[in-house]
Amino acid sequence: MDTIASLFSFITTPVSWVIVQFHTVYGAIFGPDTGWAWGLSIVSLVILIRICLIPLFVKQIKATRAMQTLQPEMKKIQERYKNDKQRQSEEMMKLYKDAGTNPLSSCLPILAQSPFFFALYHVLNGIASGDTVGVINQSLLESAQKAHIFGAPLASKFLDSADTATKLGASLTDIRVVTAIMIVLMSGSQFYTQRQLMTKNVDTTVKTPFMQQQKMLMYVFPIMFAFFGIRFPVGVLVYWLTTNVWTMGQQMYVIHNNPTPGSKAQAAYLERLTKHVTSHGKTRRRSEKTIVKAIVAKGRDRNDAERQFINALSKAGLAAQADGTVVKGEAQVAAQTEDGAAAPRRQQPKRQTKSQRQSGGPKQADDSTPTTSLEKSDEPQDDKPAAQQASKSGSGARSKAQSGQRKGPQRPKSPSKK
Questions:
Q1: Residues contacting 329, CB < 8 A, separation 6+
Q2: Under a CB-based contact definition with an 8 Å cutoff, are residues 84 and 98 in contact?
Q3: Whole-angstrom Cα Rg for the chain
Q4: C-alpha angle 404/408/411, rounded to 5°?
C-alpha cells in the first residue's frame, strides 16, 4: 500500500494543505489537538472532493441512461446469440462502441477519488510514523498524533501492536473496537448502496453482462473494504465512511427523482407522479416534464408502469403532451366552455309531420299552437276549397299513419311530382 500511495505523492501537498486549512477553522472552535478538529477536517475534505466530482457524477448518470436506451438491442442480441456467449459478448461491445457509451462508466467517481484517497493515506501514514508530509510541519504532526476519535488515535490501525498503541497514547482495545465498528459501517454502507441499485433501479426485464458485473460488485466491494480496512489508519476510515454515506444519499436522491425505466423505482415514482399531476392538473418541475416527455416519445415501446401512467391520466381527463406538459383531454375540453361552465347540449331539430314533408311547407315556429281550420286565412277565396281539401286529405293521411294502416294508392315521395 505504501508503494501505491507513493505513486500519488504529487497530490499529497494539495491534500495536506486543504486539511490544514480546515483544521485551522475547526481548531479555533474545538481546540487544535482534539479529534473533532482533525476528524471534521477530513470530513470536510471529502465533501469538498465530492462537490467537485458532481459534474463527473452527472456524466455518469447520462452514460447510464444511454445504456438503458440500448436495452431493447441488448435483448435482441441475447436472443440471437443465446448459444454463443463469445459472439454475444462481441456484439455487445460493438453495440457499446457504436452508441459511444461504456458499462464501466459507473466506476468513474471511484476512479476519480483514488488519487485523493491514496494521498490522504500517505499523509496519515506519515503521521503514524512521525514523518512530516506535504505542508504538515512538526507542530502539526505532534497535534495530529495527540488527536483521538472516540479513544482511537487518528493514525492508529486495527493491526497495530500494543507498543504502537502505547506510543500513540491509547489502549489497543479502544483502537480495535473503534476501527472494527468503522469497518463494519463502511462495508455495510457500501453493500446497501450497491444492493439499492440492483433491487430498485435496474431494469429486470433484460439480463446483460453489466447487470451481472454490478451484482458481483455488490458482494466483492464489502469484502474488499473489510480486508483493506484493518490496514487503514482511523483517519482513512473516516474518509471512506464519509464518502460511502455521501454516495448512498446521492444515489437515494437519484433513484427517488430520476429512476431507471422499467425498474421498481420507476413504478413507484410514476405512482407518486400520477397522484401529483391528477391533483394539480399539471407538471410543475423540469424533471417531471423531462420524464413525461420521454414517456410520450416512446409510443408503443412503453413498459407496463408507463402505460398505467398514461391510462391514469386519460381516466382523469388529462393528456400528456410531447413537450412534457399535461393538459386537459379532448373529452373534458369539449364539455367545457371558455369560462369553465358546462357547454349546452346540442339539440336535435323536431321532426316534421308527414303532411308538412309532403306539402313542402316550412316547420311551424311554435308547435304548441298548431293552426286549425277555424283560423282565418289570407289566401284568396278561390283557392279556399282546394286548401281545405288538402287539409282534409292531410289529416286523413295522418290518422291512417298513426293507426298503422296504409290503405289505398301510395302518394308520391316528392311533393313537386304530385
A1: 313, 314, 317, 318, 319
A2: no
A3: 41
A4: 90
pLDDT computed for residue 346 by the predictor: 52
Rounded Cα gap, residues 311 and 334, in angstroms:
19
Contacts 24+ apart (CB under 8 A), 189-192: 189/241, 189/244, 189/245, 189/248, 190/221, 190/222, 190/225, 190/244, 191/218, 191/219, 191/221, 191/222, 192/248
In sequence order, the β-bridge partners of residue 327 are 319
User: What is the amino acid identity at position 366?
Assistant: D
- Beta-carbon contacts of residue 348 (< 8 Å; ≥ 6 apart): none
Residue type, 236: V
C-alpha cell read off for 98: 457504436
Q: Are 8 and 123 in contact (CB under 8 A)?
A: no
Q: Which residue has the cell 446521492?
A: 250
CA torsion sign for 156, 161, 162, 166 is negative
304-315 and 286-298 helices, crossing angle to 10°:
110
Q: What is the pLDDT of residues 109-168, one digit of tens each?
A: 667 777 887 888 888 878 877 788 888 888 898 888 889 998 899 888 898 888 888 888
